[in-house]
Write a structure and sequence with these properties.
Distance between the termini: 20 Å
CATH topology: TIM Barrel
Structural class: alpha/beta
CATH architecture: Alpha-Beta Barrel
Number of strands: 8
Strand order of the largest sheet: 1-2-3-4-5-6-7-8
Number of domains: 1
Helix content: 40-55%
Number of helices: 9
Shape: globular
CATH superfamily: Metal-dependent hydrolases
CATH class: Alpha Beta
Strand content: 15-25%
Order of helices and strands: EHEHEHEHEHEHEHEHH
């Protein structure tokens, strides 16, 4: 079964029918990972995961939109909160040079601070990058010297949108690449080619719900069950069957986040 590695189910757009959305997801997915993108959301993400043990997991992050809130004290708070078994990563964190008003140096300081905090608690990172790969790749090279030793991935570049060269660079530094709704858009052939060039061994699937709907739902709210459309698009791009694509991406997701094998309960915390 598929795994949606990046959702925002606590977003207000799900307030009217959150339980129904989760029920639909549980009917067709093996797991979903809730992303808390500011400290104000951390406790809510943990609570949602505890309400659906073994199915919803969560991450604790500081989105570049909130980078001005970075303080070293956040690292201490992260250390405390990340001890919860439901917490499997730190994120999302990163750089956004397209739509973020926070100055670039402030974004970089917050990104590096949170990444080092993640290293301190032994968790992978969920990286947001928009129009910033020229700065992201050198930062990742600085932060993560060499490939991981104790896990397959240092983290994932969420909603990868870079070039083929940037895809290979991220994978070469030990990062998975997230594929979501945009891989289903007809105009995004170069993006699909970049992901194929990086290899199936680095691909994970996501929706970024309620954002980034697939082609069949353009202009509408996205939900975790829609990850199947991204799976079909990437299976076609790789020239493999949907079952093979599902097995590979779910294996990658479990190894990225340290999730237990299907059918088992909570891990000891990522």
């Amino acid at each position: 079964m598929l795994i949606d590695t990046h959702v925002h189910l606590n977003d207000p757009r799900f307030d009217p029918d959150r339980d129904e959305v989760i029920a639909r997801a549980a009917g067709c997915l093996a797991a979903v990972v809730e992303i808390a993108d500011s400290p104000r959301e951390w406790d809510r993400a943990i609570a949602l995961s505890r309400k659906h043990p073994g199915f919803i997991w969560c991450t604790l992050g500081l989105h570049p939109y909130h980078a001005a809130e970075w303080r070293p004290e956040l690292a201490r708070s992260l250390e405390e909160k990340s001890s919860a078994a439901e917490v499997v990563a730190v994120g999302e964190i990163g750089l956004d040079y397209a739509k973020c008003e926070v100055p670039k140096p402030v974004q970089m300081e917050a990104f590096k601070g949170m990444a080092r905090a993640a290293q301190g608690v032994g968790l992978p990172v969920v990286v947001h990058c928009r129009d910033a790969y020229g700065d992201l790749v050198p930062a990742l090279r600085e932060l993560y010297e060499g490939l991981p030793r104790s896990r397959r991935f240092h983290g994932v570049v969420h909603c990868f949108s870079g070039s083929a060269q940037e895809a290979r660079a991220c994978v070469g530094l030990g990062f998975a690449l997230g594929a979501d709704g945009p891989v289903t858009y007809p105009k995004n052939g170069p993006l699909r080619e970049a992901l194929v060039g990086a290899g199936l061994g680095a691909l994970v699937l996501e929706t970024d719900s309620p954002w980034l709907p697939p082609q069949s739902k353009r202009g509408k709210r996205c939900e975790p069950a829609d990850v199947a459309e991204a799976a079909r698009a990437m299976a076609a791009a790789f020239g493999v069957g949907e079952d093979e694509l599902a097995r590979a991406t779910s294996r990658n997701a479990r190894e990225l986040y340290g999730l237990p094998p299907a059918g088992q309960g909570l891990s000891s915390g990522g």
